[in-house]
Amino acid sequence: MNLMRRGWAWALDYAYVGFWQAHAFLVRADPAQYLTPDPGAPEGKAPVLLIPGIYETWQFMRPVAKHLHAAGHPVHVVQKLGYNRGTVEAMAQLAAAYLEEHDLTDVVVVAHSKGGLIGKFLMTMSGSTGRVSRLVAINSPFSGSVWANFFILPSIRAFSPHNPTLLSLRNNLDLNGRITSIYSRFDPHIPGGSFVDGARNIQLDTMGHFRPIADARVLQEIDRAIEAGERDSA
């Protein structure tokens, strides 16, 4: 892949970020609109919990929310995550509290970037047994990112491949069979990719870290991952 194409993909990626960050600030959407499927939508679909990445609110994943809601899934978000700047463990505890408060079971977590780490941590928590059925992660740094070592901010350095939380999650192989990792052929934020041993790994011919969230190919693979999980649990 030539440098010009990568540079263009990077520019489009940040244009996408800028649009959705501005959109989230200017347009305060109510996530409750996604909790109840519309009349005529398929019935009996699994509940979904969306977990965004670092410095992202739930609205960053609105393309996923709209798609899954149209498919009949009740879509939940944890507004207390805010911009998701806390530790993976702290954010997972907030997600676990939401699941318990709303007594949700057999939930599919659909997450972007850091959200995938939070989702896997959530699956390790004893109180989440039976509440989370599987995790579908988009461009998540399961093995960390070498770029994190060059940052001063603790919230970014936490993505170092040597971070104790990431190492613990990586070494927990028992859960990987319930994980689908979808990732781009070129992700400037995670040069090592998002492959997970023992998981269902899907590398798409998408470009970037953020923009693939709204890519039709990614949305289709999310559908397939959820459907596969439903067949396995039937």
TrEMBL record:
Keyword Hydrolase: yes
Record key words, sorted: Hydrolase
Transmembrane segments: none
Pfam families linked: Abhydrolase_6 (PF12697)
A GO MF label: hydrolase activity
SUPFAM superfamilies, per database record: alpha/beta-Hydrolases (SSF53474)
Presence of the UniProt keyword Phosphoprotein in the record: no
InterPro entries registered for this protein in UniProt: AB_hydrolase_1, AB_hydrolase_fold
Domain AB hydrolase-1: start-end pairs: 48-171
Record-given protein name: Alpha/beta hydrolase
Protein's organism: Arthrobacter bussei
